[in-house]
Amino acid sequence: MGRIYNFSAGPAVLPEEVLKEAAEEMLDYKGTGMSVMEMSHRSKAFEEIIQEAEKDLRELMNIPDNYKVLFVQGGASQQFAAVPMNLMKNKVADYIVTGQWAKKAYLEACLYGKANIIASSADKTFSYIPDCSDLPVSEDADYVYICENNTIYGTKFKTLPNTKGKPLVADVSSCILSEPVDVTKYGVMFAGAQKNIGPAGVVIVIIREDLITEDTLPGTPTMLKYKIHADNNSLYNTPPAYGIYICGKVFKWVKKMGGLEVMKKRNEEKAKILYDFLDESKLFKGTVAKEDRSLMNVPFITGSDELDAKFIKEAKAAGFENLKGHRTVGGMRASIYNAMPIDGVKALVEFMKKFEDENLSRL
Ligand SMILES: *Cc1c(COP(=O)(O)O)cnc(C)c1O
């Protein structure tokens, strides 16, 4: 059984090299006589793993010294609560709702204070990014929140919103490491690792130091306090050790590939192959505003539910897995994260062309 092309939105494809290395080290990690899964998170070997992972991530993303990098658990969804609990000093926050993940974050914040929706693309089923150049940012807002790449709908902020001086909090789960970013533009960025980095169970939080305070909302669980994790270098309790180890390997792979500039070029090249085909196809079409298209998640439809189902079934049989759109939106979605090889996208487009030729008459 060979490997298939896995277009899953998450957990998603990992670089083959990383998996092979992890396999080689499975029984005996660098002469320790044990797997990383079996070792103490206080051991020297693991300390090196987590420190090196952080160092490599800092280098890749050019993270300034006044930002902390935290490895935590609870999924990106846990951050929907952690953000307001740590940051809502005035109990006011402004949310830009561009999809389900942003909406969930907004609803969670409503549990803790006054959350306002200051922009939304719900009117057109989240198929675009609203103009965020002059938003009605609340005077006493503790932060402005976005989901930078909308995994389900396939849109991406190409310009960050004008937050009028308020800290920007961004869920970057599905775009982290896909291109260079200016970390200084953010107060907090967080990402569930299972999209563009690899293993589920790790969440990376990159947070400006002045936003890490003792002054959290009353009742904030210890495990949700950024300060606890920052003060303990992400080792307050047992961290998701094996996941962090795999993250570290992915960081090294991205570095070896040439870093984020090269990743961006590769991702643009891959996405262009797919989008160019969608734009010329008589059967398939993309579902989002062209200027807001994500490089990572590419939703498309035929316009017929029946043909969509047929396509997904035949694609699966041909070795293209997980092309079904999110259960709430239907259609198809190809997630083409960093680890998806360009050949996978080329092969998918070839398959789509063939399907189009065979099925155009049915439309
Ligand atoms: C997948 C995803 C989430 C949810 O992540 P969990 O780790 O399952 O909580 C949140 N935000 C975005 C943008 C996602 O893609």
Work out the helix count: 9
- Percent range of helical residues: 25-40%
> What is the level 1 CATH name of the largest domain?
Alpha Beta
Count of all domains: 2
Order of helices and strands: EHHEHEHEEEEEEEHHHEEHEEH
Radius of gyration: 21 Å
Distinct bound molecules: pyridoxal-5'-phosphate
The whole-number mean of residue pLDDT values reads 97
Q: Supply the helix-strand structural class.
A: alpha/beta
Proportion of residues in extended strands: 15-25%
Instruction: Please state the second-level CATH architecture of the largest domain.
Output: 3-Layer(aba) Sandwich
Please mark out the parts with pLDDT under 50 across 5 or more consecutive residues, or reply none.
Answer: none
CATH superfamily descriptor of the largest domain: Type I PLP-dependent aspartate aminotransferase-like (Major domain)
**Spatial shape:** globular
User: Quick one: biggest sheet?
Assistant: 7 strands, mixed
CATH topology-level fold name of the largest domain:
Aspartate Aminotransferase, domain 2
Strand order of the largest sheet: 2-10-9-8-5-3-4
The overall strand count is 14
End-to-end CA span: 35 Å
